[in-house]
Amino acid sequence: MSLGFRAVLGVLLLLLGIAGFFAFAAGFADYPVVPPSPKEKAWIRGAYHVHTTRSDGNGTPAKVAAAAKAAGLDFVVLTDHNDLKPPTATWMDGVLLIPGVELSTSAGHLAAFGMQRPLQDVKPWGPSEQAVAAVEAAGGTAVLAHPVQKKNPWTDEATAHQVPGFELYSADTFFRQALRSPVSRLLPALGASLINPVHGVMLLVAPEPEPTARFLELARERPRLALCAHDAHGLPAYEAVFSALDMEFPPELLSGRLSQDAREAAAQVTKALASTQALCVFRALGAPEGFALEGYDAQTREAPVGTVLTVRLPEHLPGTVEVRVWGDGRLAPDGQHIELTGPGVVQVEVWAHAPGRFFGHEWRPWLVPSPVRVVPRAPGI
């Protein structure tokens, strides 16, 4: 056996040993961090930005529906690459599959959903302004997909200001970030996935400042829609990603059961998803029932300078949850009120003390609403 071969074998055995350690630790990871409240009404839940075998995903729509059902989801928005003629909305295995698309443009990737008419005058890798206009003309909602990701970031400034949606957190981006830190991030996640696949996905969740900074910059102009994107391709497994995070609708936004007519149900979901009232939830950490952000105008998602927002938190154990604030707002000592110091924009998120890579804990995002614009106070007030 050559010296070089033995060295490579030694490194592989070392990596396997490290992965085995993280797999062992994953057996002690306790989810959810915040226990469910049986007193609260359940929210409608679903996955946004999912790929199937119609493009580069490794699962058929039927496989995706089965994974969504196992994860407890009500709907999935399918966004296969440049799928300009996707199947119509359908109920499959009790899950609503909603057609959408991820368009490749000269400036990056543009996700879109809720189109009422077919997309016209758009082609793969065509001008970004043409794709944005086509989505708007079709009555859909456009979203900047992974806009600051190292691979395929959004590069056109003019259209960035026109598009209402922004993927603030992306599971695929987390995975790609981990690839750049194979020992400290990727290996722990892979090891944990052997025992606890959802914990493996959650170990990838390590937000970086660039997406938030870019999002707040764009959100100063007008209300913006913050989305958490699965960008799921089947690796990590669909069910694990669907169980880790989702988009959810509070009862006051969409109450009761979805229509059994697939087209009507798809219209219900896409309208709610585009409303800025939907909530991104890292569901592995707990259910959002009982959460509310209060004090702003729900129609405009704006509030004047000096307003105090209130964060209503689900029941939780002390020390397991905290409110974090970015932009033109200041968190009060009680941890649940935010004074708006603008004008500008404020992003309010709830983070949870989640199981970490070893046997400790790390803070991770849990509940992520869209931002609130802070406008000047009217004269004389």
From TrEMBL:
InterPro entries under this entry? PHP_dom, PHP_domain, Pol/His_phosphatase_N, Pol/histidinol_Pase-like
- Pfam families attached to this UniProt entry: PHP
Recorded protein name is: PHP domain-containing protein
Give the transmembrane ranges. Answer: none
The Gene Ontology terms for molecular function here are: 5'-3' DNA exonuclease activity; 5'-3' RNA exonuclease activity
Residues in domain Polymerase/histidinol phosphatase N-terminal? 46-107
What is the annotated signal peptide range for this record? none
Q: Which organism is it from?
A: Corallococcus terminator
The record's Gene3D superfamilies line, in alphabetical order, gives: Metal-dependent hydrolases (3.20.20.140)
